[in-house]
Design goal:
Helix content of chain A: 55-70%
Number of strands of chain A: 2
Number of helices of chain B: 11
Helix content of chain B: 25-40%
Distance between the termini of chain B: 34 Å
Largest sheet of chain B: 6 strands, mixed
Structural class of chain B: alpha/beta
Shape of chain A: globular
Radius of gyration of chain A: 24 Å
Order of helices and strands of chain B: EEEHEEHEHHHEHEHEEHEHEEHEH
Oligomer: heterodimer
Number of helices of chain A: 13
Radius of gyration of chain B: 24 Å
Order of helices and strands of chain A: EEHHHHHHHHHHHHH
Chain lengths: 304, 302
Amino acid sequence: MTAPEPVTPRESATGAIYDLGYRSYDGPRLGRSAAVATLFWHSLRSAFAWGKSGKAKIVPWGLSAIALAPAAVATAISALVPPGMGAATPFTYDNYMSEITVPIALFVAAQAPELVSSDQRNRVLSLYFSHALDRSDYALAKLAAMVLATFIIGFAPMVVLFLGNILVATDVPAAFGDQLEHLPQVLLAPLIYALPASALALAIAAWTPRRAYATGAIIAVFMVTAAVSGILEEATGGRLADLAPLINPFNAADGTRDMLVGDPNPQSSAANSDLDLWVFGAETLLISGVAAGAILFRYRRVGA
Amino acid sequence: MPLIEARDLTKRYGEHVIALDALNLEVEPGIIGLVGANGAGKSTLLKILLGLLDPTDGAASVMGLDVTRQGPEIRQFVGYLPEHDCLPPDASATEFVTHMGRMAGLPASAARERTAEVLRHVGLYEERYRPIGGYSTGMKQRVKLAQALVHDPKLLLLDEPTNGLDPAGRDEMLDLVKRTGTEFGIATVVASHLLGEIERVCTFLLAIDAGKLLRAAPIVSFTERTGTLSVEVEDRAEELAARLVADGLQAVADGRIVLVASPDERRYDAVRDAVDALDLALVRLEHQRHRLEDLFNTESAA
């Protein structure tokens, strides 16, 4: 695509007459599944501003770096400090995801509108809908791309922790065996946080063509729920304080992680609450399900 | 099998707005002009044919496929140029048209090749590597046409393709549409409120007004001779008309033009003699043709 195409304009009094390069196409047409796959990959790339200007990359790559930095630093420290010095890092598989909820929230707030609001603002949506896919295909492809992008943000540092724990050990093969049992949570924990956060952010962003409004609204939702939940937990007592963690969707993710991975993070509100962990699991499912439903509902009606 | 078929097709927006009112159509392939005033229901009809909008009542089919049930199958073979802006400003024409080609189901390499061909066809060269945000309206319309053509559709739906273009851009766009339709045999529906454009490009005309079909017929039947002779003189048209009436012809003066209605071979000589006798300056002598405007004038008068 780098060499310019041969240009054969012939200038005349009225304008230019161009050589028609048009030929008919008899090759394969891959249909609906290819359209959905194209949209998915295109959206995943735009979540990380792949193929966009350097300026557009600042936010997604910056937030990825912020999410990754603690794991990288912790691993570097344990590599530099000789074993036996007791250099226990503050970051473990148990608490890492709940430590990076701020960059995750900011990432979905910045990139969910990039995925859906601009298609509405530029009205590209009517072109998408005039191709071989349904409105729900569009919504689900966008959701899948957003979930995978957010998953990657959490998965990358978990992998760094995982590899770090193996490689800095004196006996690498033994460490590999030890760490292998943590592999399910290395995979599962980022997904548990990515699913509700992405669905919630996309459900908000799908409602407006204005990117700035969407980003503001998403940040507000995560900030307000975290603040209200925290204040109620601290300031009140009894039943209300027990229920307070449920207000924050990331607490629900904490609880779900604790339930599924069975390795409770002692600092999390979910672990300290009197509620059973399955309540948090149910809440995560509910948030993700309702948000996904809202996205599908929105795209069934949005004008194109 | 007709290209487009509609039976009692009705679309209401809310309680009171009726965009399409029990429309019945049967259209064969060709370059079809869909003409009507703003709000006549042109865009609504195109969107229903694409399956972008559901009809309130009735049914429609494209290439024998039902629009409400087989939307994706239809859309695979249809290219659509919307009336409004629909291009992302931060992508280049090449990136965007390639992406749309892939959305239409072309494999990656085919999408890239077809993008290069189609952008050349619409007349975009070096500028196609620049972001679309910096393009002129004319260039944007070309990109819109290119994305509609990239997957080699069997049917093109063009909604006001000359929207916002200057006269030169308008001519170029109409030329492109005509070439695409005639040389490549892609059935094309051009929606426009400008009769002149339809007349230049299309072979078949669908006229709709207030959601109802006004007329569906080949363009030539609208523009054929009326049998009336139109005589334009520099002045004193009334005297000429009076003289021709005195000669036993039916003639009416209308401004500087005298319309001679008699289907009589004698009339050419009569006009010549009358002009000579009155010593008038003859400007033009021609057979009057129907004009598309008459269609709307007579229908609304009726």
